[in-house]
Amino acid sequence: MIKVNLTHRIWLAFISIIVLVGLSIIIIYPISIKGTLTEETYRLIEHEQIRSAYPLLDLLNPRNEHDFTDREAGRVGHFFIYDTLGRPAEGAPPPKEVLQEMAQNAYRQEVNRGRYEIQYGGATVFYVIAKAQIDDYPAFHISYMWDTYRDQMVNRLWERLVYILLLTSGLSLLPAIWLKHYLRQPLIVLGNHLEQIANRDWKEPLKWKGDEDFQRLSDQFERMRQNLNLYDRAQKTFIQHASHELKTPIMVIKSYAHSVKDGILPKKNMEQTMDVIIEEANRMERRVIDMLYYTKLDSLKEESPKHEQIVFGSIAFQIEERFRVQREDVKILVSGAETEIFGDREQLEVLLENLVENALRYAKDTIWMSATSTEDQIIINVENNGEAIPAHDLPQLFNPFYKGNKGKFGLGLAIVKRITELHGGYPKVENSNVGVKFSIYFPKYRKDQKRKNKKMG
Q: What is the pLDDT of residue 339?
């Protein structure tokens, strides 16, 4: 396939239009224009015939046979033939073979006036036969005109048409030139910005004022640039926070290892020293696992979700049993265990684990896990009776690496938000009457399930 740029496409489009118009004229013109001029020729003949209804001058000065061959454009000739045998034609009779055909048409004619044509000498003669009375004798008034008049009109129109077509073609190139410049300028600007983005330079904003369509395109491009900018900053922030969070346990492990190597025990004995190293290694492992899982959730956006129908209690009681031993002074209460949730079991387990683990750090003595079902939503609540969260911290709790009071790594609630969004829902946190409540709102059905239910209904 031949590749052409926008400028060539515009030129080709306008040239194609001109060629199509020219071909249409060449095809339609001979049919329509010639037919119209033929009709006009007959009208002129009939008009002259009526004007010469009493051809006294022609009778006084009869024309000879040579006059019939005078093909002067627009000239109408007249002659008469009688409806009685033996009487010669009067006026400017045509040659014998033409006169015979005209006479036969005249004798067969039933209407008062008829139109005919005949080929003679490589040309066409148009003639009109009208019934008349000469000295009380029935006769036929025959008026004729050569096609020279029609052909001259056709040629003149052709010349004018060619001039008009050439002029129109030349003038049509002006809007083509304007359109080329009109489209080229914004495309060059967009192309330059795309080149900048390809080079990871998306700081310069794009604002295009002018045509509504290009302005809408530039607005969409600007939103893309802003999203890329936000993604780039988030990626850099993620790396910075991850490096900072991993740096501390690595430094602890490294310093303890050097101390042991030098024969110095930072703790009372070797066992306690090794426990610190193992604890920091486990802490670092947990952070790495959280980071890997958080980045894994990003890739799941483009994959088809593997959702299933899950009973809330099957996950909630399992988590309650797992976290019960971490703080024996805290009770974990479960309600709405029979509520069914449509989602990914593994992801929902991680979501509840992070919420309960977060609640354990702040709860005084009770954590409530509940699930309720409304007409179009499933709501999961995890509430604890700990201290209220400062108002300025509430909007930021679900941001990656944001740690509140007693926070550990800052990814737990970010993972909760990401899992919620993968299920088409949204998270919410608020200070309640007893403490702090985290609420997760899931749609009751997926979009495809809604369509199936509607069809079944």
A: 93
Q: Which helix (H) or strand (E) holds 368?
A: strand 366-373
With 60 as the cut, is the pLDDT of residue 204 above it? yes
432 neighbors 386 (Cβ within 8 angstroms)? no
- Between 409 and 348, residue with greater pLDDT: 348
Domain 31-153 falls under CATH 2.40.160: no
Residues 18/172, Cβ–Cβ less than 8 Å = yes
The label of the residue with tokens 């944001």 reads: 402
Longest dimension (CA), the chain: 157
What pLDDT score was predicted for residue 369? 94
Which residues are within 8 A (CB) of 411 and not within 5 positions of it... i.e. 6 or more apart? 287, 290, 291, 294, 400, 401
Going by DSSP bridges, is the β-strand pair 331-335/366-373 parallel, antiparallel, or unpaired?
A: parallel
Contacts with 131 (C-beta within 8 Å, 6 or more apart), sequence order:
109, 112, 113, 138, 139, 140, 141
* HSE, side-chain direction, 13 A CA sphere, residue 442: 26
- Supply the DSSP string of 380-423, one letter for each residue: EEEEE-SPPPPTTTGGGTTSTT---TT-SSS-HHHHHHHHHHHT
CATH architecture of 212-299: Orthogonal Bundle (1.10)
At residue 196, the 3 state secondary structure works out as helix
Q: Which of 14-23, 192-201, 410-419, 446-455 has the lowest mean pLDDT?
A: 446-455
What CATH number matches the domain at 305-448, 1.10.565.10, 3.30.565.10, 3.20.20.70, 2.30.40.10?
3.30.565.10
Residue-averaged pLDDT of the chain:
78
Q: Distance between CA 410 and CA 408 in Å, rounded?
A: 6
Could you tell me the two tokens for 184? 């080229």
Contact present, 6 and 184 (Cβ < 8 Å): yes
Other Cβ atoms closer than 10 A to 250: 13
